[in-house]
Amino acid sequence: MRNDLLESNYQSLRKAYDENRMLYHDFKNHMLAVNQFIREKRNEEASEYINTYIHCILNINQRVESGCKIIDIIVNCKIAEALEKQIDFKYEIDYIGEIGIENIDMCALLANLLDNAIEACEKIENEKRWISLKIKKKNDMLFILIENSIKEGGKETRNFFQTRKEDKVFHGLGMKSIDNVIQKYDGHKEYKIQKDKFQTYISIPLD
Prior knowledge:
Blueprint: H1 2-25, H2 27-39, H3 43-60, H4 69-84, E1 88-93, H5 103-121, E2 130-138, E3 141-149, H6 154-158, H7 168-184, E4 188-193, E5 197-205
Parallel strand pairs: 1-2
Antiparallel strand pairs: 2-3, 3-5, 4-5
Helix pairs in contact: 1-4, 1-5, 2-3, 4-5, 5-7
């Protein structure tokens, strides 16, 4: 069942990524259409067309180009999801290139980590919602650092890993998937919980 869930998640992310590429590929045609509206003095239609295009860009805008397609797919899709939920998403990602981690495993690791961060942000006020993602590659090691805002308060902090979702079984599978990938590639994981911030640090050897 785990592989079916991961494959479904990967295919959904891949679809959004392909839609994004198609949108950019068609940019010239979009501009030709807008230009024709303006030439015909159909300004309201031109404005509506532009606004529709901008909305699409904000939803599936490709921002990350790490050289590793699966990382690009996941991060770009999660950035769009975070923006829709009014979460400030900052990132610092090196050129990674192709790595020896299977796509389905990277999807399980990175998508679940970001899903957890987004879920934590949804529990707090909009103006305090933020996620910071750093991915580095150095000396045949992959380093991932995710930080996100969390709801302040002792009880919330102590119970950080307890989901409020009705599908607690699937939430537990997400956490288990993260641990399985780290173990599979002899990686290392650390968590750090502060007053209003949660940090996840992961290192994985690539050789």
